[in-house]
Design brief:
This protein is 18% helix and 38% strand. It contains eleven helices and 35 strands. Strands 16-17-18-19-20-21-22-26-28-32-33-34 form a twelve-stranded antiparallel beta barrel. A six-stranded mixed sheet has the order 3-5-4-6-7-9, with helices on both faces. Strands 10-15-14 form a three-stranded mixed sheet, with no helix packed on it. α5 crosses α6.
Length: 729
């Protein structure tokens, strides 16, 4: 759980002395220690050396400190202002990478008193050591992510390591947890901007991270949905912890996402107690990413990050192999020398513990794995965008916008929107003269249309823009008090993804039949539609100046819908109108098999699944949904120069009576990597509330519209511009 300052070195300059504290995860035990400052520098102070033996901590002081914590810190709340840049080791403003890392450093505080339970936020020894350990741990993620690392007040390792685990946990749930939660609040509200993120920590930082996972992420599931992985290294994640937090899971391989990755590293000879290894601990092998006892030889180590003779940290050939000891719940390495890289008995750690090098031993493998999981997560988000754009077109937005349509059913046949043509509200429009024509002849129409829409969902991805165009041809006929007809249409669209470079081009063909029955202020309509389309997708996952993954995919899709609507209209003084709508909307979608060819440029060309020209296949899936949208619309129409100008506001509640989302499973053809990471269905929205507002301008043959829609359940929002023109013959 804890690192501590174990090595203090005074470096002398000709002009002054610099005092630097270095955290204990320095793998080289220096043989010399200086204990005095230059007497010419009145400000120079050296912190007293910390005893490295927990037994030397007086039980009397431990008891006093813990009693003070119980009495005065049971309701700790952070007062650290994380809007102050000085409270961050790193908080970049130029976020060039598509993924963030939120890093929590290990114990970096050198206590001067065994009665002080928590450090100050501006404690000099902590600030210096935290920045130093950041450089040798967090930089493993540096080339592929934006690194964020807050300063947080830490617990006194000399005190806490002398306490039972439950009391250690209670202490860490005070000031350290509250500071980290406050930093997370500020980060997600002001810095993250909806990007996927990785949690990373070591030792005490990982211990605090477990609170983040068990409490913060449980309270913020929309944030947890964007988590790529949590690297909780150097402190045990146990079976009991996972059982108590069923929303969490431990990694089973190299590419599953939203999982915890954890290990503690020891020599094979260790049998005694290790303060960071708890009963029921789980570890994953950081070389082959397996949880069983399959060994991974030194040849699999892509590189370590260790100090050279001068004390500078440099990339070296890997020094540690790895094998999981499932009985102790640790990773064992037989190739690293405990006398050089071990803890040496510090703070009650066994001499054969490599706690200080849990990260540095496997530095480049961590980097490769973070790149892999990030690429997988971004790829999944892109796939979610593909799926959601289709569902939004055929299901949620259409159902809502149709139900809240301000047009009279006898005048504008807005319920008969062809599948995939959300902007075509006047798809079967007739002019006012033809509306009252009760002869038996067919009225034929042609309706070209186009629209631009921007869609965002801040819960799971950044969004996309769609440009679409098309044409519909059909006929309408009146029989007694019924109006019925049919339409055939074509819709072409281009979808550009925000933040994640990518583009989808689609060609869709539609057919629909419909019928309408009007009474005095009451209308009923029914429509049945079918659509078939082909999509070509080009996308890239780019880590600037480091790696990129390019792919091209094509797939086909069939969709069908059955829609029933009833609307009750009421008019008030000065043209104000309300429309109460109730509908039943069924949508089914079948996605054909997808074959995707990938090309990769990265430092890890030989890694299975991300090699050059990898082929990836997604299985086909079928989706069904049945909704009952209930809405209320308020609008008012003015006639200006022969055009009806109608602003409106509307609200709807849309319970989903049944439904699922497309299942996305994937496998890489050229390797043993399987896509369990995409096997989970995208989460359904269930019942949800929606709000819409906009303005329509309608003339004899044309319609223009501006709309804004917001979904309260998912954070989904859409801005849309649309235009249609209708010719009668």
């Amino acid at each position: 759980m804890f690192d501590c300052v174990r090595d203090q070195e005074i470096q002398y300059n000709r002009s002054h002395r610099i005092i630097q504290s270095i955290a204990i995860d320095n793998p080289v035990v220096e043989s010399r220690r200086l204990s005095s400052a230059d007497p010419r520098d009145s400000n120079a102070k050296i912190s007293p050396m910390i005893s490295l033996r927990p037994a030397s901590v007086s039980f009397f002081f431990v008891a006093i400190a813990f009693f003070c914590f119980q009495a005065g810190n049971t309701a700790a709340q952070s007062n650290v202002d994380y809007s102050n840049p000085a409270r961050w080791i790193s908080a970049p403003s130029d976020n060039k990478d598509p993924v963030d890392v939120f890093y929590l450093y290990p114990t970096a505080w050198t206590p001067t008193s065994n009665t002080q339970l928590y450090s100050d936020i501006d404690e000099p020894s902590m600030l210096t050591s935290a920045a130093a350990v950041f450089e040798r741990q967090a930089t493993a993620f540096g080339p592929l992510a934006n690194l964020y690392a807050p300063y947080y007040r830490q617990a006194n390792a000399n005190i806490t390591l002398g306490l039972p685990i439950d009391q250690q946990t209670e202490i860490l749930s005070g000031v350290p947890k509250e500071d980290v939660f406050a930093a997370l609040d500020y980060y997600f509200e002001n810095l993250n901007d909806g990007r996927p993120f990785i949690l990373a920590g070591h030792s005490q930082g990982s211990n605090v991270m477990l609170f983040v996972l068990s409490e913060y992420m449980k309270e913020h599931p929309e944030i947890y949905d964007r988590m790529v992985a949590a690297y909780a290294i150097g402190y045990s994640v146990t079976e009991d912890f996972l059982a108590a937090n069923p929303h969490l899971g431990f990694a089973n391989g190299s590419d599953d996402i939203q999982k915890i990755i954890s290990w503690n590293t020891e020599a094979p000879s260790v049998t005694e107690n290790n303060p960071v290894v708890l009963p029921g601990a789980i570890s994953i092998n950081p070389l082959n990413w397996r949880r069983d006892e399959t060994p991974a030889g030194l040849v699999m180590n892509l590189g370590s990050f260790l100090s050279d003779a001068s004390g500078e940290y440099v990339l070296t050939d890997g020094v540690a192999d790895a094998e999981v000891d499932t009985n102790r719940g640790v990773v064992v390495t037989a190739t690293a020398d405990p006398d050089v890289y071990g803890m040496g008995g510090a703070l009650g750690f066994p001499a054969g513990s490599f706690h200080g090098n849990d990260v540095q031993f496997y530095y480049m493998n961590i980097r490769e794995n973070a790149l892999r999981r990030s690429a997988v997560a971004l790829s999944m988000y892109q796939s979610e965008i593909y799926a959601d754009s289709e569902l939004a077109s055929t299901r949620s937005i259409r159902a809502f916008m149709d139900t809240i349509s301000h047009s009279e059913m006898s005048r504008k046949w807005s319920a008969t929107k062809l599948l995939g043509c959300r902007a075509c509200e006047a798809i079967c429009a007739n002019n006012n003269n033809n509306n009252n024509n009760n002869n038996d002849s067919w009225n034929w129409f042609a309706t070209p249309f186009g629209f631009w829409t921007r869609q965002d969902s801040h819960a799971s991805f950044s969004g996309y823009e769609i440009d679409a165009y098309g044409v519909a041809l059909g006929g309408v006929k009146t029989f007694k008090k019924f109006r019925y007809g049919f339409a055939l249409g074509y819709n072409g669209q281009t979808q550009n993804m925000h933040d994640y470079a990518g583009e989808v081009e689609a060609d869709l063909f539609h057919a629909a039949v419909f019928a309408v029955r009007n009474f005095d202020g009451l209308s009923f309509d029914a429509s049945l539609g079918y659509s078939h389309g082909w999509d070509d997708a080009e996308r890239s996952v780019i880590f600037p100046d480091y790696a990129r993954f390019d792919s091209r995919a094509s797939f086909d899709q069939d969709a069908w819908t059955l829609r029933l609507n009833a609307k009750k209209e009421r008019r008030f003084h000065r043209g104000l109108r309300t429309v109460l709508g109730v509908g039943l909307d069924y949508v089914g979608i079948r996605n054909g098999s997808l074959v995707e060819n990938c090309a990769t440029q990265s430092p890890f060309q030989s890694i299975p699944g991300f090699g050059t020209n990898t082929a990836m296949r997604l299985k086909s899936s079928t989706y069904h949904s049945l909704e009952l949208p209930i809405s209320l619309t308020v609008d008012k129409t003015w006639n200006r120069r022969g055009r009806d100008i109608t602003p409106y506001v509307a609200a709807a509640w849309i319970p989903e009576l049944l439904g699922d989302r497309p299942t996305m499973s994937v496998s890489f053809v050229d390797s043993n990597v399987t896509g369990s990471f995409l096997a989970e269905s995208i989460k359904p929205w269930d019942s949800r509330g929606r709000f819409a507002t906009g303005i329509k301008s309608e003339g004899k043959n044309t319609s223009l519209g501006i709309d804004y829609v917001f979904d309260f359940a998912s954070g989904y929002e859409e801005q849309r511009l649309s235009a249609t023109a209708t010719w009668q013959f």
